[in-house]
Amino acid sequence: MRLAGKVAIVTGGTRGLGRAIAEAYVKEGCQVVCAAREAGPDGAGDLAFRQVDVRDPASVRALMRTVYDAYGRLDLLVANAGVSRPGPSAELAPQDWAEVIDTNLNGTFLCAREAVPYLEKDGGGRIVTMSSALATRVARGSAAYASSKAAIEMFTRVAAVEFAPRGITVNCLSPGFIDEGMGRELARNERLWSHYGGKISVGRAGGADDVARAALFLAVEDSAYVNGHVLEVNGGLSW
Ligand SMILES: NC(=O)c1ccc[n+]([C@@H]2O[C@H](COP(=O)([O-])OP(=O)(O)OC[C@H]3O[C@@H](n4cnc5c(N)ncnc54)[C@H](OP(=O)(O)O)[C@@H]3O)[C@@H](O)[C@H]2O)c1
């Protein structure tokens, strides 16, 4: 029970990787609030749910305040909510570009910004952001998504330095081919798999549990001296 007594918010915790991370934290005794625009067909299961649109500053501010008021503390933020709008840059609709930057990058900034005053109240806390292997690897059609993730990695490094004196560490997870959530189609697409599969050194796509275990490491005492780090969870991917 390495997170007993702690309170976490996982944005995008209703499905996919966020859901797996939330469940991993709960198993360690954490009170987790999953936050997204919709609860989803089965809600967040046994997990607490709060509505949020991470693109909206007022909505994000209200999320942090209501969670703090309800549970009396906030120790962990996993800024996981994200979207992808693939397409060649010359044809990508400006609103698709804006949607990705707004959700992924601006949403991460807003959640971190609004969580800091609560995280620092009870002796500090942790922020985990979400990048992607595409932040540092070139793939056609990934411009909006990859740009948003590259910026999240840099935001992580700057925020880590800025928030450290307030007792808050900021680290980033960078998943690769994960057979879950938005990666499921890719991991099961034979054409893509024949192209990229051989580039994963451990020879398999990742599972949500691979990402959740890494997210757990960044939340527990073992990573107390890790700050501003981008942890790749991609089975050793080279291309
Ligand atoms: N799965 C992969 O292979 C993979 C690989 C690398 C990185 N990642 C990253 O990991 C994170 C999770 O991905 P996933 O695969 O689990 O995605 P997913 O299954 O599509 O889930 C995305 C989550 O984000 C929430 N969300 C989206 N827009 C939101 C908004 N404006 N406000 C609040 N919540 C919002 C969604 O809920 P609502 O739609 O109800 O709001 C949902 O809970 C993302 O940041 C993604 O870029 C995933």
Automatic annotation (TrEMBL):
Keywords: Oxidoreductase. GO terms for molecular function: oxidoreductase activity, acting on the CH-OH group of donors, NAD or NADP as acceptor. InterPro entries: KR_dom, NAD(P)-bd_dom_sf, Sc_DH/Rdtase_CS, SDR_fam. Pfam families: adh_short_C2 (PF13561). SMART domains: PKS_KR. The keyword Oxidoreductase applies. This is Glucose 1-dehydrogenase. It comes from Actinacidiphila rubida. The lineage of its organism: Bacteria, Bacillati, Actinomycetota, Actinomycetes, Kitasatosporales.
